[in-house]
């Protein structure tokens, strides 16, 4: 069940970046860390490019649509999750604006970034938990061997953390390692400040 393994891996990478940003916000708030705006912006870009633009479309195409074809039991939860997927651009726009505002030196910059990010983080936690606790069991129950074969193939073809990607794509595994390296210890290796390539 490669599709499940890749899906859980992607949830973990996403949770790790969210955790790293939360940790930085806590340290900045406590006065123990200077903000690295480039790192924050790069992390927001990663959230956009990877989970929002790559992970959700795979869920929609290879898991949710075939599940709908097998049962009506998942309709309500899938309606909700698909609507959340469709809101990706708006969610990221809020975060990008919050990083910009913070970086501009506005007096309320830190507080508004913290609020915007807390909203994003709690949204994602509940989105992923809903997928894992409500949808995956229904997939396991209703998918046929053919559905699994289709889903596995779709997830393997587009597994950007493991090099199966188009040539002009970002190497997400490398980007992820670079973000973690720049993040402060103990979450990252504290090798910052973050530098563009
Ligand atoms: Fe999702
Ligand atoms: Fe997901």
From TrEMBL:
<dbReference type="GO" id="GO:0005886">
    <property type="term" value="C:plasma membrane"/>
</dbReference>
<dbReference type="Pfam" id="PF01814">
    <property type="entry name" value="Hemerythrin"/>
</dbReference>
<feature type="domain" description="Hemerythrin-like">
    <location>
        <begin position="5"/>
        <end position="139"/>
    </location>
</feature>
<protein>
    <submittedName>
        <fullName>Hemerythrin</fullName>
    </submittedName>
</protein>
<dbReference type="InterPro" id="IPR012312">
    <property type="entry name" value="Hemerythrin-like"/>
</dbReference>
């Amino acid at each position: 069940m490669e599709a499940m393994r890749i899906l859980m891996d992607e949830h973990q990478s996403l949770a790790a970046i969210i955790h790293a940003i939360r940790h930085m916000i806590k340290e900045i708030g406590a006065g123990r860390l200077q903000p690295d705006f480039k790192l924050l912006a790069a992390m927001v870009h990663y959230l956009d490019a990877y989970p929002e633009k790559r992970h959700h479309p795979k869920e929609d195409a290879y898991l949710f649509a075939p599940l709908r074809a097998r049962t009506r039991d998942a309709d309500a939860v899938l309606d909700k999750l698909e609507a959340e997927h469709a809101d990706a651009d708006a969610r990221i726009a809020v975060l990008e604006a919050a990083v910009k505002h913070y970086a501009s030196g506005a007096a309320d910059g830190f507080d508004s970034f913290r609020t915007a990010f807390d909203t994003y983080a709690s949204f994602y936690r509940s989105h992923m938990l809903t997928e894992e606790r409500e949808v995956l069991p229904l997939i396991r129950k209703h998918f046929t061997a053919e559905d699994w074969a289709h889903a596995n193939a779709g997830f393997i073809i587009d597994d950007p953390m493991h090099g199966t990607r188009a040539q002009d794509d970002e190497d997400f595994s490398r980007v992820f390692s670079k973000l973690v390296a720049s993040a402060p210890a103990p979450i990252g290796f504290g090798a910052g400040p973050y530098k563009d390539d």
